[in-house]
Amino acid sequence: LDLDTWRERHTVSFASGIGGNLDMAHIVSRGADTVHRDCCWNVMMLTHEEHMLQHAKGWNEFLSIYPHLRGRVERARHLAGKLALLGAS
After folding, report:
1. What DSSP assignment string belongs to 71-86?
2. Cβ distance 23 to 43 under 8 Å?
């Protein structure tokens, strides 16, 4: 899927299940991996507050709050060759 179609199909936050005005958050940042920035496996829908929490606190703290997302984050980081940066569970 292209990212526009993917966004239309995902209408709630992957973290909290809240709908509304959501951010398409990159798992591996666009700047860190321009090759995979438009891959559906490298994004998730989050509320703006959740997205900013992840940026402010980092993946480990974000995943301690939303542990059900660990598999998606680890898979994306693995596919992008960036898993080593995440740290242990």
Report:
1. HHHHHHHHHTT-GGGT
2. no
Query: Tokens 């995902």 belong to which residue?
Result: 10
pTM: 0.84
Q: Would you say 86 and 73 are in contact if contact means Cβ atoms under 8 Å apart?
A: yes
Residue 47 DSSP one-character state: E
Nearest Cα neighbor of 47 from 12, 71, 74 is 12
Helix (H) or strand (E) holding 48: helix 48-57
Whole-Å CA distances, 86 to 17, 34, 77, 89: 24, 19, 8, 9
Residues 6+ apart with CB under 8 A from 65: 15, 53
CA distance readout (Å), 6 to 9, 28, 41, 42 = 5, 17, 10, 12
User: What is the pLDDT at residue 13?
Assistant: 98
